[in-house]
Amino acid sequence: MPQPTARPDMTISSRKRSTVRRLLGTILGGTLLAAAGPGQAAPSAAQMDWVPKDKLPADIRATLPPYCDGTYVQPPLSPLPAGADTPDADGNLPVFASGDHARYEMNTKVWLTGNVDIRQGSFQVKGGSAVYDQKDGKVSVQGPLVSRGQGFLLTGDKGTYNVHNGHLNIQTASFLIHAADMRGDAESLDRPAADQIDINDGSMTTCGPGHNDWSLVASKIHLYKKEGYGTATNVRLHVEDVPVFYFPWISFPIDSRRKSGFLYPAFGTSNTGSGLFAAVPYYFNLAPNYDLTYTPQYISGRGLLSEVEGRYLNRYGPSTLSLGYINRDKYYGQQNPGKASDRWAASFLNNSSYGNGWSSNIDYSVVSDDNYLTDLNRTLVINRTTYLARQGQVAYTGQHVYFETLVHGYQVLDPNLTPAQQPYSQLPSMLLSMDWQKGLFEFSTDNEYDYFYRDNADLTGLARANGSRLRTVPKLQLNFDRVWGYVHPSVLMDYTRYQLVGGGEVPTSINRSVPFYQLDAGLYFDRRTELFGSPYNQTLEPRLYYVYSPARNQDNIPVFDTTLKTFNFDELFSRDRFSGGDRVGDNNRLTVALTTRFNNLDTGDERARFSFGQVFYYGDRTVGLNGTGTGTRSDSPLAAEGLVRPTNNLDLSVSELWDPRTGKTQQNRAMMTFHSKDYRYLLNLGRTYDTTSRVEQTDVSTVFPVTDRISLIGRWLWDSVTNRTVGSLAGIEYTTCCWSAQFVQQGYLTGDNKLENRLLFQVTLKGLGSGGGAGPQLDDAIYGYREREKLRYANVKGTSALP
């Protein structure tokens, strides 16, 4: 509500008739509120605007989560009387009043009784009777009293309003803030300004009327609507009217804006197997573009772990700095005598865009020891980290040119890696790509320079090598493109030069040139058909890809960053079977492939896609890498992939390698993902089978609502080769319209392949933010959970997202 201006014109003068007319208004024509009669108790603000779910309009009911019984709906505000926002010659807003009966004492007082309605600007108060004292500008209203404004509602037994400064005081009051679903009661309530409410000896909650699942009871509560936060002193957190926590002072958000203050604590079991952990995060909203979260955590058996996360956003992009430190980890010291028990971690992320095509990113992480992440980083992601990557990059993207320079290093966390297996650092790596097109001709060139370094002092042979690699790949291609298909013949030269150090068997200089001759051709057929009563367009897309490159002896070249690519459908059309630049394969092969798609003509969605293909070799492959990459077979396994999307909520995908000679599957990856429209139901089924790497795992994850308020959460990762569980999650979630709780148990593999267990617990009080250790981490552990949480909180008004 806008704050009233100075004293309105209510003096007896030449404006007497106009004043009386404005004051009394049109009693019969005034907009009156149906309220209880004089002497009756004031109505509750929450009960006045609460609408049960079955009474809501269809459009509002459709957006209401199933675990909510209703919501608050603000009725249309009464229109302002004519001239209510027009000040007089002295700049004062007029006061309008109406009632069933009125008595006016010139220049002294005005008495109104029966359905009293008083307006000044956007301020409105209604009651059973009122007395206006012209001398001090105070209006005394006897209840039941109701004051309504945009987004709020106040009620009480009686109150006073000062027309000079807009101060409103209500005794035995109740209040409602619609946007936050926040309601409460108070012995007395003050509205010193249009955007501020002070509650004395009161309580507040975001639960529906008659449901005090939780509430804050305090001697003083201050709500600042403009700033979007509240404060309270002498606070007791009540659960079902039973006090459970006491806070001398708290600050909390009342809308989606960030606010400094405590987030809710996290509780669970520590992975020492000897006790619990407890974390109490505190969020510092330092400025609109930077903030900080400090989380002290006591871990039984270890000690106090402190974590700090700072975020900064400027016009170029976001940055995040994370630090963790524990002084004298007791359990680690006992398990690792002789090692320092002070443990720490640091991480810095930055992504920046400077305009005109320039950008940069930094990703740097470091930990004090190999086991820090498994011991102290309580993530629910079921995997293990072999090494931490560190990279800094600057890039430029233009219309026909791309340039990047970066430095890339690692911290190895797997103690089982031998020195020869550890990755090289690139100090630096530079890439320059350019392309030009003129008519049918397209010319491109990729140029890369890398300097590779690793501590090889204890290694022998080519494994001792460090040095630089310069690689350039110019390419000329002709593009014959038509609606019915395309033909792309091309020729390129892959040239590489090494300058190496290392001594012994390491050569100082190496040159390698390998030409490639390629032909890529495809046709496009389509037809209209009908499936399940809907019109579809089915395509048939045959494709041929031929590549030839001669063999070059590369046994004297060290291996810096090269691996053999995993063979799958996409690799059917790759010119080289090696990634990186230290091996260039010999080729004389033809790929034959076919793809068909089914596109719904009504919606444009691709509902199904099936592809399969095979490689036919016209010569042996002699260039290898550590005993892999060579072969004498004249054909490859049949590679296939398929995707079926019968609805927008269900995806079925599969990729497979099948050997037609043996009739056996070499590799299979299948995935089913399902979610309901509101993401309340989630189900993911995955299976990975690979005879080459001896992997056979099944991955199942789900969120399944048992009732509108209770959901089961689970994930299970089973390894058929070792016949054991290698990861698991099991939990339960209880959600109401004003709070939710999650209890999650996790089983995970540690660095020594032992399965450990821990528990995490999170509570969220709607309207006061959330906290704990489960919810945010489930986003990464269960596919679709992140979208579920976004929709869940988007449909509940007033919930603050965690910073």
Provide keyphrases for this structure.
26-stranded antiparallel beta barrel; single chain; 803 residues; disordered N terminus; twelve-stranded antiparallel beta sheet; lipopolysaccharide transport protein A fold; disordered C terminus; 56% strand; 7 helices
Question: Could you describe the 3D structure shown?
Answer:
- It contains 7 helices and 47 strands.
- The chain is mainly beta.
- Helices cover 6% and strands 56% of the residues.
- The longest helix is centred in the C-terminal third of the chain and has 10 residues, at 785-794.
- The chain has a 26-stranded antiparallel barrel.
- Among the domains are: 16-255, lipopolysaccharide transport protein A fold (Sandwich), CATH 2.60.450.10; 259-378, no CATH class; 676-803, no CATH class.
- The chain is elongated, with a radius of gyration of 36 Å.
What is the percent of helical residues?
under 10%
Instruction: Please give the alpha-carbon distance between the first and last residues.
Output: 29 Å
Biggest sheet statistics:
26 strands, antiparallel, barrel
Shape category: elongated
Secondary structure tally, helices:
7
Report the structural category: mainly beta
> Please, what is the CATH homologous superfamily of the domain at 16-255?
Lipopolysaccharide (LPS) transport protein A like domain
Which strand-content bin applies to the residues?
over 45%
- For the record, what CATH class of the domain at 16-255 applies? Mainly Beta
What is the second-level CATH architecture of the domain at 16-255? Sandwich
The multimeric state of the shown protein is single chain
CATH overall fold name of the domain at 16-255: lipopolysaccharide transport protein A fold
Report the mean per-residue pLDDT as an integer: 84
How big is the Rg? 36 Å
Q: Provide the low-confidence segments as ranges.
A: 1-39, 770-776, 795-803
